[in-house]
Amino acid sequence: MQLCVVVPVYNEEENVQPLADEILQALSGQALTFTVVFVDDASRDKTWVQIEAACERDARVQGIRHSQNAGQSAALWTGMSQTDSRWIATLDGDRQNDPADLVGMIQRLKEYDFICGKRVSRQDNWLRRTSSKVARAARRRVLGVDFVDTGCALRVFDRAVLAGVFGFNGLHRFLPVIVHGGGFRTLEIPVNHRPRVAGVSKYGVWNRVWRGMADLLAIAWYQRRRFPLQEALKSTRPASRRP
Q1: Is 240 inside a domain boundary?
Q2: Pairing between β-strand 33-40 and β-strand 87-90 as defined by DSSP bridges
Q3: Per-residue pLDDT tens for 214-231?
Q4: Which of 50, 52, 53, 39 is nearest to 10 (CA)?
Q5: DSSP 39
Q6: Assuming Cys at both sites, which of 92, 163, 199, 217 could form a disulfide with 153, CB separation 3.0 to 4.6 Å?
Q7: How far is it, in rounded angstroms, from Cα 23 to Cα 134?
Q8: Exposed (0-12), middle (13-18) or buried (19+): which is 165, by Cβ within 10 Å?
């Protein structure tokens, strides 16, 4: 099994090396080969310097750098597009996701195409937790699908699920919904969530409300109009040749 772990980062100089060490430690004992790809979204601090240092320390760590800031979704899309491993894992670069959870998620890939985490005992303030509950209710009502925590970046999946997925600013929040809508086998499992120990959050509540609403309506339209490729492929048969 060949796995690529994609980690989007922006101004996370203090977190790069500790996170790289945690990922390497979590996956080194598993029966797989893997790489860790940090995607620097044009950080203004020394994040890229730390990525280069991490690459020098371990050849399994790689780095990609945006020339200009494009957002978390763009960094995620770059990481997934610039690697060719069949299996992909993602997590945030702020060390609030626990790399140790990747092991249990990988073990479920025989049963599911896409495994995503739902954060338990979230180490966020009251306002962010409440906004997540409101967003969940809106997704359930508008999209007709109930994922507890689409904002959790901790995921492991088969590259095949990216069929029908397109790059847009907001992809990182709606990826489980789009994959599920494509007919792939999805599973949401509890994962650890840790307090931030270095750096600062790049997101607030109010800078996501209006864009989140627009994205929700756009995804609802797409889900209604998309082709059910998985179901169509199941029933596809090649034309028989006459003797």
Answers
A1: no
A2: unpaired
A3: 777 777 777 777 776 555
A4: 39
A5: E
A6: 92
A7: 32
A8: middle
